[in-house]
From TrEMBL:
Native source species: Parabacteroides acidifaciens
InterPro entries tied to this protein: Acyl_CoA_acyltransferase (IPR016181), Gcn5-rel_NAT (IPR045057), GNAT_YJDJ (IPR031165)
Protein name in UniProt: N-acetyltransferase
Top-level division of the source organism's lineage: Bacteria
PANTHER family recorded: BSR4717 PROTEIN, PROTEIN NATD1
Domain N-acetyltransferase: 8-94
Database matches in Pfam families: Acetyltransf_CG
Gene3D superfamilies listed in its UniProt record: 3.40.630.30
PROSITE patterns assigned to the protein according to its UniProt record, in alphabetical order: GNAT_YJDJ
Lineage: Bacteria, Pseudomonadati, Bacteroidota, Bacteroidia, Bacteroidales
Length: 100
């Protein structure tokens, strides 16, 4: 069973991150003044790949976006792919954005 990691919103670096030992998986974002959040890039250190860390990170970020009532623009293919596999998150996506 994978550990439950704490989501950290590093507003200075504009990224959500986990701190796992010396590793820092992250999702970079841009938040617009009118409440849109663009998830631009996901990075999971190669040492943590295949352990479900990226998926947990995306899920926690989406939960946070839902809580803040932001409209999501998933520019990162990893995030878009996660939402395709978990369509219950599609309601967060800004109208007119198609992730296929």
């Amino acid at each position: 069973m994978m550990e439950d990691y704490e989501l950290i919103d590093n507003t200075e670096e504009k990224q959500f991150e986990f701190h796992i030992g010396k590793y820092k998986p992250l999702i970079e974002y841009i938040i617009s003044k009118n409440g849109e959040i663009y998830l631009t890039h996901t990075e999971v250190p190669v040492e943590l790949e295949g352990k479900g860390v990226g998926s947990q990170l995306v899920k926690k970020v989406l939960t946070e976006i839902e809580k803040r009532k932001l409209r999501l623009v998933p520019m990162c293919p990893f995030v878009a792919g996660y939402i395709q596999k978990h369509p219950e998150w599609k309601s967060l996506i800004m109208r007119g954005i198609n992730i296929g």
